[in-house]
Each structure stands twice: as C-alpha cells, then as structure tokens.
Design goal:
- The chain folds into two domains: about 110 residues, no CATH class; about 130 residues, Purple Acid Phosphatase, chain A, domain 2 (4-Layer Sandwich), CATH 3.60.21.
- With about 240 residues, it is of the alpha/beta class.
- The model has no long low-confidence stretch (mean pLDDT about 90).
- The protein has a five-stranded mixed beta sheet, covered by helices on one side.
- Helix content is about 30%, strand content about 25%.
Length: about 240
C-alpha cells in the first residue's frame, strides 16, 4: 500500500505528512499479544519506513501518535528523574523514539505546535496553512462522531491553543475514512490508514469498526486550501492501485 501510494503521488507532492503511529511499540501494549514482535524487530521496520519516506518526498512532516508515545509514557512513569535526565541527554532531549530517529533524516521534521502564553509545545497536531492535521485520542463506533468531536474541541479551544482560520480538519487515529462538509465553509476528514491486518482484528471478540485503508491528498496555494482538491484515496476497494 505504501509503495502504491508513493508511486502514484511522489512526483507531484511537495510535502508528505504522516499523521501518527508510524510505529506501534507492540511489545509495550497493555492489550493481549497475538504474536511475538520485539521492539528491535519493529524498530528496524520503522527505520526503513522513515528512510523510504525521506527518499520519496522533498519534505516529510511526522505527527506523533499515541502508539508512537507508548515508550515515552512507559519511561516517564517507571524511571527516576535522574534516569530520565540520562536518557534525554543521550537522545538529544527527547523520550520519544520517533523524534530521536527523525534527527537522522535532514528532510524529516516532527510536528510541533506552540501553545500561546506558555513554553509548552504539542507534537500530536500541526497546522499547515488553513489545514489542521492531528492525531487526537478520540474514537467512536458511530461514523463521523470522532472527527466532529475533535472539530468541536478545536472551536472551543481555538484561543487557548492558538488555532484559528482552519477550513480543513484532517484526523488520524480512528483508522476510518469519512469526508463531509461541516459548518460554513469547512471540511472534516478522517484519513484512513495504511496498516496491515492485526491479530486482534481476527479475534472472535468482535467489535469496533473495520480499518479503512487509504490516504488523503489536497492542494494549497499560499496557505489556502482548494477544498475541491481534497480527495480520499480508498485502497480497500477492488480497483485499488495495487490490484491494477
């Protein structure tokens, strides 16, 4: 799926934005493990993926997802302050392995949004012109509910977060695809995922919503998005690019 996406989009793309969970930290998950996956094995695959994106696109921006942050949360909760200081010293100031790895690639940037009137920055969302891309930890079994809740949160917290003038909202995390106009002149999009089938998805304990594999493209001129250019590329359908 990633190869098909790159083959189709790389030549005409100025900026590629990975919207979170480029890694999984599967071995650190609190959920039942359906297969053995060591952190070292996974990290080799993550490194290869980041190298592929770096070689395929002029500029790559990576948003940190909740799976990317699993190791950071585990370290922060289990190490002493002196141990945390030692780790961040060795990594150049971060507990996030994706952030540390990105430093090896000159054209990869980790997303960063500065909160007004504070020294705090967040790495789970970013603005790009009048587009907001984010990996909020919000999910719902009802289609469209998560992205609507996120948009409402943004509107309610726009001043505190220093976010205004957003016309295009793109959300990761849900593994769902949705696309609909909302309010006056804004568009809400859940961008799907490029994930393989996971063991938990084949369990008899069914629930949730199925993964919708795909990605989103859009065009901007001087920071203004052409909303008519926003397009979902749904890779689960029979005429997906890897089937042609």
């Amino acid at each position: 799926m990633v190869a098909a996406m790159i083959a189709r989009e790389a030549e005409q793309t100025d900026v590629a934005i990975q919207i979170g969970d480029i890694s999984d930290s599967y071995s650190l998950s609190r959920f039942a493990k359906y297969e053995p996956v060591s952190f070292a094995h996974e990290w080799a695959k993550v490194t290869l993926m980041m190298q592929t994106l770096s070689e395929s696109f002029p500029v790559v921006k990576i948003i940190v997802g909740n799976h990317d942050a699993r190791l950071r949360k585990a370290l922060a909760s289990q190490l002493t302050p002196d141990m945390l200081d030692a780790v961040t010293t060795m990594t150049g100031g971060t507990l996030c392995p994706v952030t540390a790895l990105a430093k090896k690639f000159p054209n990869i940037e980790i997303a960063s949004h500065e909160i007004p009137n504070s020294d705090h920055q967040v790495d789970w969302l970013m603005t790009y012109g009048d587009c907001l891309l984010a990996h909020p930890e919000k999910f719902s079994r009802v289609p469209g509910t998560a992205i609507r809740a996120f948009e409402e949160w943004v509107v309610d917290n726009a001043n505190a977060m220093g976010i205004d003038g957003i016309r295009l909202f793109i959300m990761g995390h849900t593994h769902a695809l949705s696309f609909f106009p909302f309010r006056a002149g804004s568009l809400l999009v859940e961008c799907g995922c490029l994930c393989r089938t996971q063991g938990y998805m084949t369990s008899a304990r069914i629930g949730g919503r199925p993964q919708r594999r795909g990605y989103v493209t859009f065009e901007q001129v001087k920071g203004v998005t052409d909303l008519n250019s926003v397009k979902i590329h749904w890779l689960d359908v029979e005429d997906g690019p890897w089937n042609s």
